[in-house]
Predict the 3D structure of the following.
Amino acid sequence: DYLSARYQLTKKEIMVFELLLNGLNNTSISMQLNCSLATVKTHIQHLYQKLQVKNRQEAICKFLR
């Protein structure tokens, strides 16, 4: 709820972000969510734009603050 309210993330983006926080790579995320690797990469790019970060590590650090 916090993420969707503050950063206007979709439910799918939140699901991807939670899996990122758990240390999964893009391939594992696509298998977990039963979607293509390209779809996962698109969700991650949208996450980066909305969180205003450049990579996974920055996204995780922003979440932990």
